[in-house]
Amino acid sequence: MISDGFKIICNGTSKNVYPAGFCHNMGDSSLCYRFIDTKPVIVKTLEHSDWNEYATEEEQEAVIGIRPLKMKRLG
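Predicted structure:
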């Protein structure tokens, strides 16, 4: 959808959010960390919140200082 010009605005695409590794690697990626003053708080990935501010993966990486995990395709 992003390649077609659409932007999904939710917790998972916000500037101060990073995927929770335990949910990303072993779960369904439904949870992520929102960083508030460097303290991580778990939030639902696809939920919308008033604080959402859209960011690309590169912008998330620059703000948080860590590289988002990439999903591997099976098959």
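Summary: The mean pLDDT is 76.
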